[in-house]
Amino acid sequence: MTIAFQGIGIPSSCPIALGPAFIDVRGRTRASQIPIAADQVDQEIARLDLAVDAARASLEAVRNQIPHSTPIKIAEFIDAHLLMLEDAALLEEVRRIVTDRLCSAEWALQLHRDTLVRVFDEMDDPYLRTRRDDVEHVVHQIQSFLQPDTPGSDLGSRDLNGFVAVSRDLTPADAILLNHRGAVAFVTEYGGPLSHTAILARSLGVPAVMGIQDVTSYLHPHELLVVDGETGTLLADADDRTLGYFRQRLRAIEARQRRLRELINRPSQTRDAVPISLLANLELPEDVETAKSNGAAGVGLYRTEFLYLNRSDLPDEEEHLATYAEMVADLEGIPITIRTLDLGVDKGATPVGDCGSSVCNPALGLRAIRLCLKEPELFRPQLRAILRASALGPVRLMLPLVTNIQEVDRVLALIAQLKRQLDRDGLEYDDAMPVGVMIEVPAAALAARAFARRMDFLSIGTNDLIQYTLAVDRLDGAVNYLFDPIHPAILRLVRMIIEAGRALDIPVSMCGEMAGDPRFTRLLLGLGLREFSMQPGAILDIKEVVLAVDTRELERRTDALYANLDDADPSELLDALNQG
């Protein structure tokens, strides 16, 4: 009898894998509360320091195993954890707990871990929320040396060629080792699509299914598994008929991928010769190679929040500039849109402000452009660095979470001031660098024409636009069934934004998940969208649709769909549009 498990799918270059199970029982073990005497404090702190040194040596050993020929900058994932091991804010607090509470290093580390995880769990941004995994992983690295008798497995010495690795959790270091040992897929009890391990899995081309509770307890070593990263499904003990279906599907996927690769060098235009710009959303600098290998025409959204994470200080202008300059150089002349800081004080990422999540709604509070305008000393170094990077190649600047025109006017005035400073300092910049806004608040969508009069471009952030318009947290399992990209209100707002751009002859892009979903490509083209920005792995799927359609026909049929929004099921209208 086939047993099915459902989790969060992480599709990759080949989203399906079959193989025997390798069960890794290590994971998030809980320490016991062990009291110590006052004269044992120094000994406990010494144990902690030794464990940190051992964890650092272990990570450095993994880093040294990464081949120089690796096409992506995998080492930076390990570097992020090494930096956390140097973080005084992490370790000094653990030492203080040992001293004040007279408890073991293991217990103190766990208490501080629980505090940090609560902070991340209260964050609004889903990408930043998953950074709790980095805390978990670093704490686990240290705990594994404080508690050496914890059950485990030596990943570094196992031949896992063809195996599916099943674990409670995987650190980026684990994922790298497993990949080097030949594992064909990852299955975990914890984790999500924006975790570093998930990003690594995509980059490594390894399908993964994450978030299957207690999966290590249900499976047996060497049991044949089917991992479907596309649907988030794990199958165990599958019968011959089921295995035959997935093997046939795997062959079909591999054949389709070969066909898609042939599209990379074809011009991205519709059958009626309308050019469509297909851009990439990037989370980290190491994603550049993936974007280029999928034929991205540029970067439509580069998130800069990673620069502010896992540190007690703020990045200065030179650190910002070094990162952006590297990105511009790696992109080799294709344009990049850099989004300014989209964090809030509720996220614990900056030492400014006094509105925490306990006194205000993080989603509606002091964050993104609101925080930057309230704290210009936080904002200026990033703006100066982006301006200076614009002298090195085609750069656009994008402002997140704008609500009213006054915010935009204040930013434009600040940019003009910074340009005068750069002139006095003798530093180069592109005086014509485009400046645009993300439309992700319903108020901004309704005022799209006013924004279009002042800006060089608009970008539709559908993830938040849908969430705010429908009052639905898409990560809340109790209500996320209401998160509907084709709700009539959403389609009307999207069309309103696109028409505002057309009326004033400025480009409009879309950088939310809707842009990278082939189910919506015909609809969006019919609504007039001509610039799509998405996760790099989706580019060729969208391009395949683009090459097959005629925009004039799509616009005619979309107008008919739009006229019936209030009288028919939008999903049925969408199906009809896609089947025609």
List the keywords.
3 domains; alpha/beta; 580 residues; single chain; 23 helices; 8-stranded parallel β-barrel; Glucose Oxidase, domain 1; TIM Barrel; Enzyme I, Chain A, domain 2; 8-stranded mixed sheet
Structure description:
This protein has helices at residues 41-65, 75-85, 88-101, 105-121, 126-129, 132-146, 172-180, 196-204, 215-218, 240-261, 288-293, 317-331, 368-374, 376-389, 405-425, 442-446, 448-454, 462-470, 488-503, 521-527, 539-548, 551-563, 570-579, and strands spanning 3-6, 8-10, 16-24, 164-167, 185-188, 208-210, 224-228, 233-236, 277-282, 299-303, 336-339, 395-399, 435-439, 457-460, 508-510, 531-534. The model is unreliable at 345-359 (pLDDT under 50). The chain folds into three domains: 1-26 and 161-262, Phosphohistidine domain (Glucose Oxidase, domain 1); 28-150, Enzyme I, Chain A, domain 2 (Orthogonal Bundle), CATH 1.10.274.10; 263-579, Alpha-Beta Barrel (TIM Barrel), CATH 3.20.20. Helix 12 links the parallel strand 10 (299-303) and strand 11. The longest helix is centred in the first third of the chain and has 25 residues, at 41-65. It is α/β, with parallel strands linked by helices. It is globular and about 75 Å long. It has an eight-stranded mixed sheet.
State the share of residues found in helices, binned by percent: 40-55%
Envelope shape:
globular
Mean residue pLDDT: 87
CATH class of the largest domain: Alpha Beta
The Cα radius of gyration reads 25 Å
- CATH superfamily membership of the largest domain, which one? Phosphoenolpyruvate-binding domains
Number of β-strand runs = 16
How far is the first residue's CA from the last residue's CA?
Answer: 39 Å
How many domains, as an integer? 3
Class inferred from helices and paired strands: alpha/beta
Strand content: 5-15%
CATH topology of the largest domain: TIM Barrel
Strand order of the largest sheet: 1-8-7-3-4-5-6-2
How many distinct helices? 23
